[in-house]
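Fold it.
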Amino acid sequence: MTHAKARTLEDDIKELSPWFHNLHLPDGTETAPDHFLGDFPSFKWREIAECIPEDLSGWSALDIGCNAGFYSFELARRGARVLGIDCDGHYLEQADWAAEQYGLRDRVEFRQMQVYDLARIKGKFDLVLFMGVFYHLRYPMLALDIVAQKTAGMLVFQAITMPGREVAGQHDFWINERDALLEPGWPKMSFIEERFAGDPTNWWIANHAGIEAMLRSAGLRITGHPGDETYLCQPDPIHPSCMTTWNRAEYLSATNGVG
C-alpha cells in the first residue's frame, strides 16, 4: 500500500511561484532566497523600521501595492490592523497563504484593487505605505492626490528617481521665460514610452525635486528621508492641496464624484 507524500512548505512555495517578496517564514524557510535584488524587501524595511512606532496597537494601516504582504505583516506584528491592496491576484494569493503561516489572518486583510479605487473607500488610515508603486502608475498625480486624502497620520513614500538631489527655487514666469525649466533642480518627470528595466509598467521617473514638489502639491509636509528615494510625510493643514480647495471639481471629475 502506497502512502501519499505529505505536502511541504516547499511544495506550496513552488506552486505559488514566482515570488517577488522574499518572505522569511516562521521555520526559517524563505520564499525567494535567490532574489535578484538580494534579501528583498527586508533591506528596504530596515531603512524605515525605526521611523515607525514599535507599538501600533489601535492604528489602522494601508499597504498600497502589498505584493506578497511583507510590509503588511511587519505592521501587523507591531499591532496594527492592516489593509493590503494590490492589482495582481497572483501576489494576493501568496499574501493570503503567508498570513496563515504567520498566524496573522486576524490582523490583515488583502483586497484586489487599483490605487485609484481608494477614492471609494470611506475613512482614513493612521499609517500609509506607498512604496514601489508610483512609477508604475499611468496617472501618478491623481493617485497621489487620492492617497494623500486617505492619510490621517504618516505616509511613507518611495519611488525610483533620477540621479541628483538638486532643488531649484521657483516663482512665476512669463510664458516665453522657460530656461528655468532646464535647471537640474527644476521638478521633472521622465516618461518611459516602451519599458524601463525590462518592465512595460515603469511609466515615470521623477527627479528628487519633482517628488518633493508633488508631495507638497498633494497637501503633504515632508518630515524626513529615512532611506534613498524614501520620504516620510504627514498632512499639512497649513498648505492643503488645491484639489481640496479651488480645484476640487477636477478631482471629483477624475474620481467620478467620490473622495
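The helical segments are 9-16, 42-48, 70-77, 89-102, 140-149, 208-217, 248-254.
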